[in-house]
């Protein structure tokens, strides 16, 4: 591993100026779980690392009934899983964070680092897309917010400019009748990373599902909503037949990747099964 300077800015503007000054030779550093592997494998060789650990604005999990949830980018997966306000108001999100990776990664890796690395085979992006989350991004030039669906651009590529930092993730307040379910499918129990994941959220008013969101990831370069599946379910009482039709539409419509962990046909087949089962569990359907 090449030697590097470890910089510890006190606020976002200072960190941003450091990133801008050193350009391609510089990386932000949060928990280090992804970055240290990349350094050891010589995929990157920065001369400067900008540690985010001393920037207070990036910490903390806060819930407000009107504004919803604010998760600081430095929040570790294990903290998110155990935060009382997340367990109470966003059980789908807490459950996702409790089961990703392994205990070492959950205790060291941050939510911000996970999103900024934009590895497709991860859990939070799909779950947060299903929850309509937004990201708060800042630099010395100012602050902006983006829907999380616009944050992911391609494999390992986000909408962050080189001098920008992910500050926080915002999740809107849940409706009183909100329901949701996140499922990760592993190819073998020994693997930590999902081969396919889906998040479904809706409001259950009377017998019908409304405000339906269906997000699919891990088998796609970036997580994606599936409008045809959502339209099939919207405003309807979800039956086993409807769930099967929505799952088939999602499997057809996604941009499925092919690689050593699974070819395109296998991934589409798993999306169909995983989504059908997720809908069955969410809407108390028989059979799954
Ligand atoms: C063995 C293993 C198994 C894993 N399994 C899973 C899994 O099952 N599911 C899953 O979702 N993930 C999994 N991961 C990924 C893990 O969640 C991420 O490695 C972790 O969350 C990254 O966070 P970090 O704080 O360590 O990031 P770092 O390694 O510090 O940084 C990662 C990247 O993000 C950039 N960055 C970090 N924070 C910011 C910020 N606030 N603003 C701008 N840029 C930033 C860094 O410059 C770097 O490029 C696994 C990782 C390992 C090593």
How would you describe the overall organization of this protein?
35% of the residues lie in helices and 26% in strands. The protein has 288 residues and is an alpha+beta fold. The chain has three domains: 5-51, Uridine Diphospho-n-acetylenolpyruvylglucosamine Reductase, domain 2; 56-171, Uridine Diphospho-n-acetylenolpyruvylglucosamine Reductase, domain 3 (2-Layer Sandwich); 178-282, 2-Layer Sandwich (Enolase-like, domain 1), CATH 3.30.390.50. The strands form four sheets. It has a five-stranded antiparallel β-sheet with strand order 4-5-10-6-7. A four-stranded antiparallel β-sheet has the order 11-12-13-14, with helices on both faces. The longest helix is centred in the C-terminal third of the chain and has 19 residues, at 264-282. The radius of gyration is 19 Å and the shape is globular.
Order of helices and strands: EHEHEEEHHHHHHEEHEEEEEEEHHH
For the record, the count of structural domains works out to 3
The best one-word shape is: globular
The proportion of strand residues reads 25-35%
Number of strands: 14
CATH architecture of the largest domain: 2-Layer Sandwich
- Compute the separation of the termini in Å: 49 Å
Number of H/I helices: 12
Mean pLDDT: 96
Bound molecule kinds, no repeats: flavin-adenine dinucleotide
Low-confidence stretches: none
Q: For the CA atoms, what is the radius of gyration?
A: 19 Å
- Determine the fraction of residues in helical runs and give it as a percent range: 25-40%
Largest sheet: 5 strands, antiparallel
Return the structural class: alpha+beta
């Amino acid at each position: 591993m090449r030697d590097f300077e470890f910089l510890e800015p006190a606020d976002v503007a200072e960190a941003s100026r450091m990133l801008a000054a050193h350009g391609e030779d510089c990386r932000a550093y949060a928990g280090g779980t992804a970055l240290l592997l990349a350094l050891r494998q010589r995929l990157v060789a920065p001369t400067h690392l900008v540690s985010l650990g001393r920037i207070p604005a990036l910490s903390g999990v806060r819930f407000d009934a009107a504004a919803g949830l604010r998760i600081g980018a430095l929040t570790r997966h294990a903290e998110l899983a155990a935060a009382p306000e997340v367990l109470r108001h966003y059980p789908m999100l807490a459950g996702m964070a409790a089961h990703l990776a392994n205990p070492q990664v959950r205790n060291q890796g941050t939510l911000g680092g996970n999103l900024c690395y934009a590895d497709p085979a991860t859990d939070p992006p799909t779950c947060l897309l299903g929850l309509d989350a937004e990201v708060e991004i800042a630099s010395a030039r100012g602050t902006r917010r983006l829907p999380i669906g616009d944050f992911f651009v391609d494999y390992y590529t986000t909408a962050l400019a080189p001098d920008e930092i992910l500050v926080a993730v915002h999740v809107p307040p849940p409706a009183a009748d909100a329901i949701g379910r996140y499922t990760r499918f592993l190819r073998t129990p020994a693997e930590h990373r999902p081969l396919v994941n889906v998040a479904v959220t809706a409001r259950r008013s009377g017998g019908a599902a409304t405000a339906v969101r269906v997000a699919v990831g891990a088998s796609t370069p970036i997580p994606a909503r599936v409008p045809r599946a959502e339209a099939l379910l919207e405003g309807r009482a979800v039956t086993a037949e409807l769930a099967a039709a929505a799952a088939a539409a999602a499997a057809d419509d996604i941009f499925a990747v092919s690689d050593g962990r699974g070819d395109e046909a296998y991934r589409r087949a798993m999306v169909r099964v995983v989504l059908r089962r997720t809908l069955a569990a969410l809407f108390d359907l028989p059979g799954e």
